[in-house]
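Long-time lurker, first post. I've been practising inverse folding by hand and with some scripts of my own, and I keep getting stuck on stretches where the structure tokens seem ambiguous. Below is the full token string for one chain I'm working on. Before anyone asks, I'm not after the true native sequence, just a reasonable design that respects the backbone. If someone could post their per-position residues I'd love to compare against what I wrote down in my notebook.
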């Protein structure tokens, strides 16, 4: 590793620890590093707006700032913000970026910001944390279904996630090239019935291993919950708690042979139940504490009986749109209260 790249990786590791991102991931249950929060903690406002050619820009002034193109995917927005933070933390001057694809011939400042971004958002520690919670092995990561779900939990694109595994020497370049032959649109179509499929929306697949996590979908993302089912013994999963939190729920009827990727997701032929969750319009506008996604498996005719099984996780839906990020707005409010 070249000295300037090693310095960028080292700086990213420092920021991961010192900014509170490490505690957020390892103690609070979140799965990803939020570059907006890090920028807010540094007093660097992030403004999202449509940009004609640029993906993002870093502006070095008395009060430095970051611009990010709001008309890109959430994964690219996060990576762009982290790249511009790389310029900030590495002491670079004002710069604009039309791409996030930087090779060995790129200017040193771009290589530094590039390696900083990848090692901030997809360090070995962050990857290991997700893999441990999800019970994924290195072998699991060679499955495109797993790579796609990993990308959602990291908050970066499917392609960037694949190449982050190469940078971390977890997979090699040939393995990732083979994985990327399967595109997210094919994975999403396989996960959902055709009538539910929308190529513009991400599809999160949740199961028992997501209990300890706080997940951060976009407000329009679709969440597919897959749980073990004892319907043959008269038990059904209750959906009342979900409705009270603002979720719209639709059971997804499927025979076992229709369940995609059975080797990864169904063990020993255990029967499963699937539910597709979306946020209602009122819940989409909420900010604040994570929503509780809770379900109980009960015999519906036995009111008040103890549940046969329970499932609970938390979701904090991310709102991304033109304007200052929520962290930047909170920063301004803090500053105005001190003035």
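-- Answer (accepted) --
I ran through it position by position. Result:
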């Amino acid at each position: 590793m070249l000295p300037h790249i090693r310095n960028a990786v080292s700086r990213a590791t420092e920021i991961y620890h010192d900014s509170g991102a490490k505690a957020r991931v390892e103690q609070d249950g979140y799965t990803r590093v939020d570059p907006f929060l890090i920028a807010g903690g540094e007093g660097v406002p992030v403004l999202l707006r449509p940009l004609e050619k640029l993906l993002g820009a870093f502006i070095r002034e008395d009060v430095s700032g970051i611009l990010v193109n709001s008309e890109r995917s959430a994964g690219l927005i996060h990576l762009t913000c982290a790249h511009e933070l790389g310029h900030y933390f590495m002491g670079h001057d004002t710069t604009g970026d039309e791409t996030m694809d930087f090779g060995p011939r790129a200017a040193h400042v771009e290589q530094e910001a590039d390696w900083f971004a990848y090692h901030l958002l997809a360090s070995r520690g962050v990857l290991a944390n997700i893999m441990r919670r999800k019970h994924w092995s290195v072998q699991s990561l060679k499955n495109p279904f797993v790579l796609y779900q990993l990308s959602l939990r990291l908050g970066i694109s499917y392609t960037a996630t694949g190449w982050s595994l190469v940078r971390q020497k977890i997979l090699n370049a040939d393995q990732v090239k083979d994985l990327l032959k399967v595109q997210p649109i094919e994975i999403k179509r396989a996960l959902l019935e055709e009538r539910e499929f929308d190529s513009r929306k991400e599809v999160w697949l949740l199961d028992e291993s997501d209990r300890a996590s706080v997940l951060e979908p976009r407000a329009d993302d679709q969440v597919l919950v897959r749980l073990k089912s004892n319907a043959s013994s008269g038990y059904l999963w209750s959906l009342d708690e979900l409705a009270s939190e603002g979720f719209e729920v639709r059971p997804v009827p499927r025979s076992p042979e229709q369940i995609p990727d059975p080797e990864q997701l169904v063990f020993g032929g255990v029967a499963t139940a699937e539910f597709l969750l979306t946020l209602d319009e009122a819940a989409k506008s909420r900010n604040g504490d994570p929503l509780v996604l809770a379900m109980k498996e009960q015999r519906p005719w036995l009111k008040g009986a103890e549940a046969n099984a329970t499932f609970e996780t938390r979701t904090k839906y991310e709102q991304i749109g033109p304007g200052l990020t929520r962290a930047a707005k909170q920063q301004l409010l803090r500053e105005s209260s001190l003035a």
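A couple of notes from the structure itself: Confidence is low (pLDDT under 50) at residues 262-268. The CA atoms of residues 285 and 319 lie 8 Å apart. Happy to go over any region you disagree with.
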